[in-house]
Amino acid sequence: MKWDILLEDGSFEIDNKLHIKSSDMIDLAQGKYRSTRLESFTYPKSAHCLVNPGCIVNQNNQTLIYLENIDDTNILLHTTNAVNTYYYHMVNDEKHRSKSFWRDLTEHYGAYRLYTGLPYTSSDSASSHNTDHQSCVDELIRSLVPLSNFVNKFIQDNYNSMYLKLKNLSLGPFAPRSFEIFPMIVINYNIVSNYHWDLSDASNCLCCLIPLGNFQGGDLYFPQLHVRVPLQPGQVVAFDSHNLLHGNLPLISGIRHSIVYFVHQNFFHKEDNYSNMEIENVKLIKSLHDNKNLNKRILLSEPVDFQTIDYTINVPKNKDQRHSPEELERGRKGESKILHFNE
What we know:
about 350 residues; four-stranded mixed β-sheet; alpha+beta; 10 helices; Fe2OG dioxygenase domain-containing protein; globular
């Protein structure tokens, strides 16, 4: 699968030297792939559809997207029940509800390293808005242990250098290590995402996304690659969240949660004195390339039609809003999605 270089200015370069600004790319994705009735989504439907376990690589044979199954149904049922219980508790109990939950229907658990030299516990993990809510958060995180174990084993088996790099990453004395190698997770509660790059994520690591719930639609879509992943419960997808524009197609029906395991770039400070923080990048890149010899895909040498489209279309300028107001309002009410085609 052909993938080309994101330049330093955030533009996207393809073989005919057409440059597309990152803001225009997002505007295109928002306008073309969301603001249309679902039945006319012929363009996303024509995308390469990754349904079965497999891997898509770039022109350097480096992993971009890797889909795998979660074979243990007990992990899936246990995690889904825990997230659903927490979600409805937050919807119905205003006193326990955090600002981030009500604003974005998301919460971040684990360790941040944004404003200080040492990593620190996120406000959602610490339940800083209400100490009475701490036991609810602790129970949720304990319930995620089986899933976290699976995700860590998945990375260890397929990207051992990445696993070792993150395992040897010290979080210091003030931050929990609730998710093994990953400092942080985010849970998106009954919400799908608009198109975005996670530019704070480490550029030489992969994030891992797991969908939960009972739903139709909400496919994960990568406009740069013209790749669609119709994720379902029981699957995990690892992808390059820093470099790949990604978002969801509209949800058709049901309730869809998702859990994302990731690591921010600012955990890797060159001036740190933590021992064994850095694993040689050459080893990491080789691991991302090899992926246990699963990266056997056709590499395209010429741009295809979707890479040479005229992207100058009249759509509202993107304001980096991860979620639409309509989806947020539905999620805050704890409602299932029902798509009306006559809207």
